[in-house]
Design a protein that fits this description.
With 175 residues, this protein is mainly alpha-helical. 41% of the residues lie in helices and 4% in strands.
């Protein structure tokens, strides 16, 4: 091959050419870009973009009702923007109104039954108090025994003891 001096000289010349080209181009003023300009006027701006993809809600939310009922009216359409608290649909409340009427009737019936039971308890308490008062008054008064107004004859003129005929209810005089 050629001598190392020639190689070194070629490398230096090549570097000088590269630096010179870079320096010359760097000092040139950049050319202005060609742009298209428009005058802005008030009006309706419509831009339609067709694209495929997946949409996701900013904050996904499950919508449920506290009861099950047929839908009477839908107030929003698919694609409508809704905010938290917006009314989305109206449920048929006919069956719920019937259930409310039935529940009110059951409440009235239960209240009536409660009043009857409370009266029974009150009456029973009054009866118990009267029985207690009666027992107390009996225990305070002296016991009386029944005494016939004339002595019971031990014998009859025939000399025999009299016997009872027929049935007579027995009485208990103990308290």
């Amino acid at each position: 091959m050629k001598s190392p001096w020639i190689r070194g000289l070629l490398v230096v010349i090549l570097l000088a050419v590269i630096v010179g080209v870079y320096w010359v181009r760097g000092n040139e003023e950049p050319q202005a870009l060609q742009v298209e300009t428009f005058t802005v006027k008030p009006g309706v701006f419509v831009e339609e973009v067709q694209a495929s993809g997946q949409l996701a809600a900013v904050e996904p939310t499950d919508v449920t009702a506290p009861f099950s009922a047929p839908i009477e009216k839908v107030l929003v359409q698919e694609g409508d923007r809704v905010e938290k608290g917006d009314l989305l649909l109206v449920l048929d409340s006919t069956s719920l109104k019937e259930q409310v009427v039935q529940a009110k009737a059951q409440v009235e019936q239960a209240q009536s039954q409660l009043a009857k039971l409370q009266k029974q308890v009150s009456d029973q308490e009054k009866l118990n108090q009267l029985q207690i008062q009666e027992r107390r008054s009996r225990s305070k008064s002296p016991r009386t025994t029944w005494m016939p107004s004339r002595p019971f004859p031990s014998t009859t003129p025939s000399g025999k003891m009299p016997t009872a005929s027929g049935s007579r209810p027995s009485r208990s005089w103990s308290s």
